[in-house]
Amino acid sequence: MKKRNTKKYLKRIIITLLLSYFVYSTFINLGYRNHINQSQERNYQHLQAISAIGDNLAHRLEEFTRIPIEQEDERNAELFDTWRVVSSESRSIYSYLSGMSTLHMEDEADDWNLLQYSLFRVDMFIDGMTNKFLENRSYQISDEEKEKMDAVISVYRNVSKEAEKESVNIERLLESIQEPMLIIDNYYSDALEKSDRNY
């Protein structure tokens, strides 16, 4: 009799433990799934912000490149103000890029990593130009630098164009910025090779 009661008691304990484990596992999985969804959504929100800031950056950079360098002395204040906006917008984009987490992007993680790398390289170029202007106390640029600035404009115009679509496709976006990125970043072909993303 005692053995029978003990068996029933043990069976109840085991069933209770199994049910508790199932409920706990379900709760943890739902919580983790919610965390992943929030992380993914945050990345897309950051991309939307980068798109808006990048569009303004492209517009101001275009203005900067259109100012004839022969008029640098008389239009120095205009060059200064325009480049200050370009540099400031690039710093804002850097902040949003730093806030991105590609860990939970699942099958698209590699594409998001490459996008993040690409835009970091654009920021590095702009930062390098800022340092050059400060060092030289002049806004003169070489033909190669002008070509890279045009490529930056192209990158952010393409980011903006993709972000406006109903369904954002990161692979398609990377394809659209590959050519200008190869102009901006001398090591971009290596990054494409490592990520196995040759479009």
Overview of the structural elements:
Keywords: Membrane, Transmembrane, Transmembrane helix. The chain crosses the membrane at residues 12-32. The protein has 199 residues and is mainly α. It has helices at residues 2-66, 76-98, 109-136, 143-163, 170-184, 188-195. Helix 1 (2-66) packs antiparallel against helix 2, helix 3 (109-136) packs parallel to helix 5 (170-184) and helix 3 packs antiparallel against helix 6. The chain is elongated. The mean pLDDT is 89.
Q: In short, what is this structure?
A:
The chain has about 200 residues and is an all-alpha fold.
Task: Give me some keywords for this one.
transmembrane, 6 helices, 199 residues, mainly alpha
Write the layout of secondary structure elements.
Blueprint: H1 2-66, H2 76-98, H3 109-136, H4 143-163, H5 170-184, H6 188-195
Keywords: Membrane, Transmembrane, Transmembrane helix
Transmembrane segments: 12-32
Number of strands: 0
Nearest-integer average pLDDT = 89
Strand content: under 5%
- Principal-axes shape call: elongated
| Count of individual helical segments | 6
First-to-last CA distance: 75 Å
Sheet having the most strands = none
Helix/strand order, N-terminal first = HHHHHH
**Uncertain residue ranges:** none
The secondary structure category is mainly alpha
Gyration radius over CA: 26 Å
